[in-house]
Amino acid sequence: MKIESFSWVADANHDGQVGLATVWHVLQWIYITPGNLLLEALGHVHVTADLFHIQASEQTGYYSLNSWFAALFSLLFWLCVLVELCNLKDFIQARLRSRHPQSAPRHPHHHWPHLHRP
Q1: pTM of the predicted structure, to 2 decimals
Q2: Phi, psi dihedrals of residue 26, rounded to the nearest 5°
Q3: Which residues pair with 57 in a beta bridge?
């Protein structure tokens, strides 16, 4: 099975140089790839392809790739990745604190007991 989402040329203008336009093109490709892959997968299932008018296969053409639909799916994908990375950071910090309990942050009343009188 051919995956059209992976068919791309980094040097779009074929000048042989890496410039700002080339970097921008690569970043756009990285961003849109998750959405394109999902559309290609849905495009091979005839029921979903017909229901959502997805054209992302060799038989129907690849007109749905790089569309707003692909951009929306990619946005959702990258937001999930960002949330998971934030959760991973918290998880790692919690694990490090559990391994080294003496490095855990102390409560303010431990430093200033005279401020918390009954």
Answers
A1: 0.63
A2: -65, -45
A3: 61
Q: Positive or negative, the Cα torsion across 59, 61, 65, 67?
A: negative
| Separation of alpha carbons 112 and 102, rounded Å | 18
4-55 pLDDT, tens digit each: 666 666 666 667 777 787 888 889 989 999 999 998 888 888 888 888 888 8
Q: Using the 8-state DSSP alphabet, how is residue 53 labeled?
A: T
Q: Are the CB atoms for 70 and 64 separated by under 8 Å?
A: yes
- CA angle 101/103/106 to nearest 5° reads 90
CA distance 32 to 40: 12
Q: Cβ–Cβ contacts within 10 Å for residue 77, how many?
A: 16
All residues at 6 or more sequence positions from 75 whose CB lies less than 8 Å from its CB, including other chains: 35
Question: How far is it between the farthest Cα atoms of the chain?
Answer: 78
